[in-house]
Amino acid sequence: MKRLVILGGGESGVGTAVLGKKQGYDVFVSDAGEISAVKKEILTQHEIEFEEAKHSNEQIFSADIVMKSPGIPDSVQLVKELKAKNIPVISEIEFASRYTNATIIGITGSNGKTTTTALTHYILKNEVNAVMAGNIGDSFAMSVAIESPDYYVLELSSFQLDGIKAFKPHIAVITNITPDHLDRYNNNFEEYIAAKFRITMNQDENDFLIYDGDDPVITDWISSHTIKAKQLPFSLTKTIEEGAYVTNNTININLKNKSFVMPTINLGLQGNHNVKNAMAASTVAKLLDIRKQTIRESMEHFQGVEHRLETVLKINHVQYINDSKATNVNATFYALDSMLSDTVWIVGGVDKGNDYDELLPLVREKVKAIVCLGVDNTKLMNAFSPCVDLMIETQSMSEAVKIAYKIAERGDNVLLSPACASFDLYENYEDRGNQFKQAVRSL
């Protein structure tokens, strides 16, 4: 019996443990921190051995294969030692993909990947047996363990792609690439770009790569690297022979023998970034022969994802907006750009090597006050204090919301769009967004 050791007892780790057990492995889970009560319950239920608050060498180095949770970087000493001993270290995505025959649609990008994944799944599920997993919903491994759909729509982070060897989506989507997670990639943007493009590394000429043809980072990389998959760009600015583009406020999709048009005004989600998400999702749907009427109706009715520019409440004519999922500068750029009235902006968290320069013109134009929400706000204070008259530091969500409430006037927005990771004060961006909503409802 082969021994599978799993580093990390979170969503990916526990999903892999359940799938590994089902596939006949001797499974052991090791987490340097604490494993949540819910996850422990699942492990116990499946009679899977685990340890927490430590890594025992004798347990770990007896592995035939190790699955490393995406949050653990390759630079960790334990991972280096495993590789030195020639023990294969893979990602959950790689492991799970070995046990499904479903057609895989893999979606990555710095921003827009959650919305594009959710929208693609929303369209497909109306006609085919499709499941959404990965960085959204259940882990891919847990899903493979408990269900067997015909299609998987996977949201994939660069961390998840770092550990793939043979993983090969039939359709890959790269929504865009902007600097993010540079702390993980030795502050080297090129390394991060290469991680994103791993999504297409095993594809061949029977597969498809859909990407933003307006994104200079993506187009530069493609022009200097060999890609075997059929390339289908989408663009807001130029006419595309095979792919998707916009003319006269209408989305046009041209594929071999297949076409599709839809006015952008009919989209359930507005804004240029959502037009791009819609082009990516509908290109996938056309490749899979989903009916035009289904695509149109789905895109008209789709209302977006939680924690992404989610309107919470209007109080005293002030709109409160939860964009907790904006964990990088580019995502916050979209959020600020979409604000149509004066905005009190709640920002901050764990800085991932952010460069705030691109936000300065928008902040000058749209933001009347900034409420900082992080353990260390020095960099934010230095970047934005010349742009706004009022900047206030806070240490809790309820305090931040109460201060925003006092500052905001009739017709204003209060926007939580942190541009940073959440791990200094919260479990994850969902926890941060839920605390924001709770604080707003408690006003």
From TrEMBL:
Pfam families: Mur_ligase_C (PF02875), Mur_ligase_M (PF08245), MurD_N (PF21377)
Entries under Gene3D superfamilies matching the protein: Mur ligase, C-terminal domain, Mur-like, catalytic domain, NAD(P)-binding Rossmann-like Domain
Entry EC no(s): 6.3.2.9
Molecular function via GO: ligase activity
Residues annotated as binding ATP: 109-115
Pathway(s) this gene product operates in, as recorded in its UniProt entry: Cell wall biogenesis; peptidoglycan biosynthesis
Broadest EC class assigned to this enzyme: ligase
Residues in Mur ligase C-terminal domain copies: 307-420
Catalytic activity of the protein: UDP-N-acetyl-alpha-D-muramoyl-L-alanine + D-glutamate + ATP = UDP-N-acetyl-alpha-D-muramoyl-L-alanyl-D-glutamate + ADP + phosphate + H(+)
InterPro entries: Mur-like_cat_sf, Mur_ligase_C, Mur_ligase_C_dom_sf, Mur_ligase_cen, MurD
Residue stretches making up the Mur ligase central domain: 107-285
Entry's localization field: Cytoplasm
Keywords assigned: ATP-binding, Cell cycle, Cell division, Cell shape, Cell wall biogenesis/degradation, Cytoplasm, Ligase, Nucleotide-binding, Peptidoglycan synthesis
Chief place of localization: cytoplasm
Sequence similarity: Belongs to the MurCDEF family.
Summary of the function given for this chain in its UniProt record: Cell wall formation. Catalyzes the addition of glutamate to the nucleotide precursor UDP-N-acetylmuramoyl-L-alanine (UMA).
Record-linked HAMAP family: MurD
Protein name, UniProt field: UDP-N-acetylmuramoylalanine--D-glutamate ligase
Species this chain originates from: Gangjinia marincola
Gene name for this UniProt entry: murD
